[in-house]
Structure formats: C-alpha cells, structure tokens
Amino acid sequence: MSVSLKYYGHSTFTVNADGVNLVIDPFFAPNNPLAADGATADTIDADFMILTHGHGDHVADAVSIAKRTGCQVISNFEVGNWLANQGVENLHQMSTGGGYNFPFGRLKMTIAHHGSQMPDGSYGGNPAGVLIYFNDGADIYFAGDTALTYDMRLIGEAGGVDLALLPIGDNFTMGPEDAVTAAQFVKAKRVIPIHYNTFPPIRQDPEAFVQMLQDAADIEGIVLKPGESYEL
Ligand code: NI
Ligand code: MN
Fold first, then answer.
1. What separation in Å is there between the alpha carbon of 79 and the centre of ligand 2?
2. Which ligand is nearest to the CA of 199?
3. How far apart are CA 16 and CA 75, in angstroms?
4. How far apart are CA 102 and CA 48, in angstroms?
5. What is this structure's pTM?
6. Which ligand lies nearest the alpha carbon of 198?
7. What is the tens place of the pLDDT at every residue in 27-63?
8. Spatial strand order in the sheet of 48-50
C-alpha cells in the first residue's frame, strides 16, 4: 500500500497508487526544458490523466498520451470538450467543487485563481486544483496554477493533507512567500514546490523556499529534481 510520485519538472508528475498509474499535467520533452532524463510522452504509462487547466505547459502532451494509452482523462468540462474534438474518447468531466470516487480514490476539484485558455485559443473553462484522497489513506493537494486564496483554509479546516504540491514560481502563480501561507492554510504535513525554473520569469531558489517553510511554518519541504521520486 503506497503512493509514489515521480517529478518531471514544471508541474508534471506521474503517480503510482497501488498499481494504478496517473499522469498529472503532462508536459514532457521537447516542450518542457526541464523534462527528466529527456522523458517523452511516448514513454509514459497511464490509466488516468489529470489536467488542471488548458494552458500549454499543462496539456502539451495530453492528446498523444490519451490516444496511445486509452487512459481516462479527468478535467473540467471545457478542457474535456477540447480533447473530444481531437478524438480523445475516454473522458471524465468535472467542475470545481465536485468530487468523484475513482478506482484510486476520491478526487475533488478545488478552486484555482488563474486562467485556462487552450493552446489553440479556445475557451478552457475555469482552472482547478485537485484534492486526492487515495484509497491507502494518503491525502494529496495538487494546487495547479493558482494565486494564494483564502478558500485554501477550507482544506485545512477539513483536516489538512499529508502532502501539498504548491507552485512557487511567482509571476504566473503565487510566489514562495504566498506558498508558505498556502501550506499553513491547507495544513500540509509536507510540501513539494512546483512550477519554477522552467522559464526565465519564474526563476526561484527551491532550497530557500524550503528553509522559509521550515522557519516560518515548521513544515517540511522536499525539493525534487526532475527524475526524482517521493513515496508516502
Ligand atoms: Ni497556467
Ligand atoms: Mn502553468
């Protein structure tokens, strides 16, 4: 019984939860300059795919992986329709605030303050984060691209999470200081920073973030280099 995450740089993860493979916001080489060991979309196993919003740095490899693997794609309604227009058939469409019981656990779409235009300019609906209550008991919050929001306190008040994946890049999302506050709001036991160092405007020092998280909030931070995994 375990949940293992592998980081590919930017916001891209694969997750193995008791043998079920998930891919989150697939953005692999050559588009993702940080992509771990040059990982490309044709090397990824997936039973499920989670897409937080329509921006290219989150959906770049969604269609190719979905078509090759036949995985079920979990996204908002509009992103799902964009995939359907490109021939992706196995969709599970949701909206913010809604939860659903999947084979790997319960997934709830959370509010994110951001944009969601698709790469071709079409409307991508509202951006989201996801809260996943895995069957083995691990609770993970993947914030997606978002500002710090006071709504994050609801996640903390509901009991908090074992792990929060929070953007720290600033410019397009919250920066390191706000990510510390977000970690406190959601009552995270530990935090992995994401969405930094991919492009010049989002350069950050993740080690400085982890130190600030420890000093200001007494919360453990884990810096994953692209290609590294974390198990909980
Ligand atoms: Ni975005
Ligand atoms: Mn992004």
1. 15
2. 2
3. 19
4. 10
5. 0.97
6. 2
7. 999 999 898 777 899 999 999 999 999 999 999 999 9
8. 91-94, 72-76, 48-50, 20-24, 13-17, 3-7, 229-231
- 96, with CB counted inside 10 A (0-12, 13-18, 19+), is middle
Distance CA 168, CA 153 (A): 18
For residue 2, what pLDDT band results from cuts at 50, 70 and 90?
confident
Q: How far apart are CA 103 and CA 86, in angstroms?
A: 26
Name the residue among 193, 180, 195, 186 with its Cα closest to residue 222.
193
Q: What is the DSSP string of 79-116?
A: HHHHHHHTT---EEEE-TT-EEEETTEEEEEEE--S--
Q: What is the pLDDT of residues 181-232, one digit of tens each?
A: 999 999 999 999 999 999 999 999 999 999 999 999 999 999 999 999 999 9
- Rounded distance from Cα 58 to ligand 1 centre (Å): 7
Residue with tokens 């400085």: 208
Q: Quick one: which of 96, 123, 121 has its CA closest to 108? A: 96
